[in-house]
Specification:
This protein is α+β, with helices and mostly antiparallel strands. The chain is about 25% helix and about 25% strand. The chain has 2 helices and 3 strands; from the N terminus they run ααβββ. The chain has helices spanning about 30-45, 55-75, and strands at about 80-90, 110-115, 120-130. The protein has a 3-stranded antiparallel beta sheet with strand order 1-3-2, covered by helices on one side. The relative contact order is 0.23.
C-alpha cells in the first residue's frame, strides 16, 4: 500500500461569490402599513382593559416594546435593526405633543407609529426600522 500524497484525499474547498447587497429586496423592505397594523393589533390585545397605575407602567412599557419588536422580527424584515419606543401616560384630557428626529437613509429606513387611548390611559408607539449595510 502506498502513502497518500499531499493532494490526494484532501477535501476541495469551494468558494462562493460575494452576495452582499446594499439595498433590501422589495419584499423585505420596511413597510410602514404592515408595521402599523402589527402595532395596532398588539395594543388592542394588551391594553383593552388596562387601568393606569403608575407603579405598573414601567414594566408594561418594557413588555409592550419587547412584544412589538419580536413580532416585527417575525414579519421578515431581514437585516433591519428595529427600535421601538413606547410612551404610556394617564388620560387627563390634556394635550401631548411628541416628536422624533433621525439621521438615516430615506431609501431604505422608515418608521411607523400608532396611538391607543382608553378612559384611563394613552399609549404612543413609534417603531423605527434601520437597514444594516
Amino acid at each position: 500500500m502506498g502513502e497518500l500524497g499531499p493532494d490526494e484525499g484532501a477535501e476541495v474547498e469551494e468558494r462562493a461569490e460575494n452576495t452582499y447587497s446594499l439595498r433590501p429586496a422589495l419584499q423585505h423592505r420596511f413597510k410602514s402599513s404592515t408595521v402599523k397594523e402589527c402595532i395596532r393589533a398588539i395594543l388592542k390585545e394588551k391594553l383593552a382593559d388596562v387601568q393606569y397605575k403608575p407603579e405598573e407602567m414601567p414594566e408594561l412599557t418594557k413588555s409592550l416594546s419587547d412584544t412589538i419588536k419580536d413580532r416585527l422580527k417575525e414579519e421578515g424584515f431581514d437585516r433591519y435593526k428595529m427600535v421601538v419606543q413606547v410612551v404610556i401616560g394617564e388620560q387627563r384630557g390634556e394635550g401631548v405633543n411628541m416628536a422624533a428626529r433621525c439621521f438615516w437613509d430615506a431609501d431604505t429606513d422608515s418608521c411607523a407609529h400608532d396611538v391607543f387611548m382608553n378612559d384611563s390611559l394613552f399609549c404612543v408607539v413609534a417603531a423605527f426600522g434601520c437597514f444594516y449595510y
